[in-house]
Amino acid sequence: MRLVMFGAPGAGKGTQAKRLSEHLGVPHISTGDMLRENIEQRTELGRAARSYMDRGELVPDDIINGMVRVRLEESDCEHGFILDGYPRTIPQAEALDRMLGEMGIELDAVFDLEVPDEEIVRRLSGRRVCRQCGASYHVVFNPPKQPGVCDVCGGQLYQREDDTEEAVLNRIAVYKRKTKPLLEYYTRRGLMRTVDGTGSIDEIFGRLLGLLPGGK
């Protein structure tokens, strides 16, 4: 099973991608993680990416595409994969099509987790992170035992700048603007599956399973 996961920040696509990965027995490929690993391992592509990041520039598509190609050719992707965070643009989607075509395989489905803006704001604006150990909490869903204090190390909890309501709304707007062409691209190809991303993790996972090709 070869899948792509879309969803705005806070929609829960990473959580659901991991669960699908375990259920299907295929790797969950997060391009953010992949980029960090290449940089840490000082691969040729990682060094190239780092040179752009050090200058505060976006990593070019050809480098990202190259990393994805190398990852998809690894043996654990033989029976499928779940892409999370890629593609982000139409040129990347077209590059993915070419890669898969050269490998003699195709995507099975593309999922888009839809969550109302107000719910995403509620999820992200309530997040608090420990300054000392990085542990994450939520004032409603996963509060610390003592307000403002980390359960793990006793460090101070704070709200990240990009988790304020204004910042979250801006992140949602940017995501929608950049992703709309991709959703249309995959809709035209008959691959798009829109999923209600509200409710419990189990409820959302059940909806995803019900939309898998072949009912897997």
TrEMBL record:
Alphabetical UniProt keywords: ATP-binding, Cytoplasm, Kinase, Metal-binding, Nucleotide biosynthesis, Nucleotide-binding, Transferase, Zinc
This protein's record includes keyword Ribonucleoprotein: no
GO cellular component terms attached to this protein's record: cytoplasm
Pfam families xref list: ADK, ADK_lid
Pathway: Purine metabolism; AMP biosynthesis via salvage pathway; AMP from ADP: step 1/1
Similarity annotation: Belongs to the adenylate kinase family.
EC number: 2.7.4.3
Main localization of the protein described in the UniProt heading: cytoplasm
Domain of life: Archaea
PANTHER family: NUCLEOTIDE KINASE
Domain observations: Consists of three domains, a large central CORE domain and two small peripheral domains, NMPbind and LID, which undergo movements during catalysis. The LID domain closes over the site of phosphoryl transfer upon ATP binding. Assembling and dissambling the active center during each catalytic cycle provides an effective means to prevent ATP hydrolysis. Some bacteria have evolved a zinc-coordinating structure that stabilizes the LID domain.
Cross-referenced NCBIfam families: adk (TIGR01351), PRK00279.1-2 (NF001380), PRK00279.1-3 (NF001381), PRK14527.1 (NF011100)
Catalytic function, reaction form: AMP + ATP = 2 ADP
Residue sites binding ATP per the record: G10, A11, G12, K13, G14, T15, R127, S136, Y137, G199
Taxonomic classification: Archaea, Methanobacteriati, Methanobacteriota, Stenosarchaea group, Methanomicrobia
Spans annotated as NMP: 30-59
Domain Adenylate kinase active site lid: from-to ranges: 127-162
Subcellular location: Cytoplasm
Protein name, per record: Adenylate kinase
Binding, AMP: T31, R36, E57, L58, V59, G85, Y86, P87, R88, Q92, R160, R171
Any one GO molecular-function label of the UniProt entry: ATP binding
Organism in which the protein naturally occurs: Methermicoccus shengliensis
Region (LID): 126-163
Gene Ontology annotations of biological process type: AMP salvage
UniProt-annotated binding residues for Zn(2+): C130, C133, C150, C153
Keyword check for Repressor: no
Task of the protein: Catalyzes the reversible transfer of the terminal phosphate group between ATP and AMP. Plays an important role in cellular energy homeostasis and in adenine nucleotide metabolism.
Subunit comment: Monomer.
